Backbone:
């Protein structure tokens, strides 16, 4: 659809590790957060996988994604219990030894009172050889990076704090610009004008998202690209076509040259 | 960890198709719903992937998953607009012709007033050859099944209605039993008793999930298996060990032989 240059935008894939997501017990909150933070850094998330807490499945997903993407992030499975197997799985994926990371152990011992230290907590310092630590300002137990794979916890508040430090420090790309326009008409009525504008703006992703809320239905149109001028050009074309339909429409952003409500 | 028999439990994988999930704009609501409905039918979700609206990525994911799982479900990309490419991608994945499905067209023409019929809406009747329709009681445009791949829309309210009809009609397995116990202690304090109970109950998945809410922290322990008696046995072992710790605990379900609050 769009022919976006890959040199503008590093790519990322995410592996969400956790039986509880696959069972429906927990709704993942980390993918949306990562998507947003990566987008702000101009890093394009191209795939996500949800896998169980099973070593062979983690290894398979990480190895499938790490050679074809700039960055991989994993979430979950680095706590102190028997079902926390991610660190060992990453060592297996890379074929490197797995053992106690001295700096990680130092941080944990500095954090816990001596009577709280036990084998389970210290196991959070067991990592692949060569791991670089990723700081955890909330609860100390570090994540780690091995080559382009960044291993993070699953607890959303902890992941978010770590990601807020980590992602801005990564080599990013041109941030995505986006522009949204809401039209109170069904997708089927707008499809042909959308297709025409898309054809004329091949470097911009134009997506359409139907909605029904508060008794009204309509379609939100979103134009996205790592180039604000191209997005603006597509936006103007969309507005001109939409105005010509006579449908009611509205917009929430500053790009519109028109009044913000039909 | 657990050695659950695969004959008890058909497996499912889900492919969530949508740029808007990867961009962070939309938070997927379909995976949790599918996970729950599949679990009720005794079908175990073993993987989910989120891919963009790009044909080669959809083909890659569907083909990777359909030979190693009993069922595959895709969500998204079967609407009337130019970015709805899933049906064509499924035809490509199976190497079959793609074209107008007569019954699907009949349903759409029966639903839309003549002046509402246009090429975009009729394109929702374009499907792989050999597709069996999946009924859509909300907005008529059907999903479809090709071999073990079930193609569904992305709009949550429509998917839910379709899934409520579809999944109970699939050949399922022994429904998962689960039992949850909440202990007001950190995971690190419970890890060793959990590991011991897990070792003694290899066919039950025992997971631990830390939480911090309303100023209290703790760990929820969940025991799951497609065998209620095994889950009950693991539950009793967990309760006995937790009682012995003296930590405050509570439970919400009927399996506990003990009072529901410490």
Residues:
């Amino acid at each position: 659809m769009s022919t976006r240059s890959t040199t503008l935008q590093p790519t990322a894939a995410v592996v969400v590790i956790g039986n509880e997501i696959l069972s429906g017990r927990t709704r993942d909150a980390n993918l949306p957060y990562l998507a947003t933070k990566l987008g702000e850094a101009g890093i394009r998330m191209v795939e996500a996988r949800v896998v169980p807490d099973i070593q062979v499945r983690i290894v398979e997903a990480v190895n499938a994604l790490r050679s074809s993407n700039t960055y991989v992030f994993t979430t979950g499975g680095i706590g102190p219990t028997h079902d926390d197997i991610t660190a060992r799985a990453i060592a297996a994926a890379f074929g490197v030894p797995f053992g106690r990371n001295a700096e990680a152990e130092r941080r944990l011992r500095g954090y816990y009172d001596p009577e709280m230290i036990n084998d389970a907590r210290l196991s959070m310092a067991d990592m692949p050889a060569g791991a670089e630590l990723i700081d955890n300002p909330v609860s100390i137990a570090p994540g780690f990076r091995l080559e382009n794979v960044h291993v993070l916890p699953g607890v959303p508040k902890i992941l978010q704090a770590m990601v807020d430090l980590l992602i801005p420090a990564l080599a990013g790309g041109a941030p995505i610009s986006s522009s949204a326009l809401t039209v109170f008409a069904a997708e089927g009525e707008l499809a042909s004008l959308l297709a025409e504008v898309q054809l004329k703006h091949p470097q911009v992703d134009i997506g359409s998202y139907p909605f029904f809320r508060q008794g009204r239905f309509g379609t939100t149109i979103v134009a996205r690209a790592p180039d604000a001028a191209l997005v603006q050009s597509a936006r103007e074309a969309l507005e001109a076509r939409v105005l010509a339909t006579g449908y009611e429409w509205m917009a929430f952003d500053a790009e519109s040259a028109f009044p913000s409500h039909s």
Observations:
- The domain at 2-169 of chain B is CATH 3.40.980.10 (Molybdenum Cofactor Biosythetic Enzyme; Chain A).
- Residues 78 and 84 of chain B are 5 Å apart (CA to CA).
- DSSP finds nine helices and twelve strands in chain B.
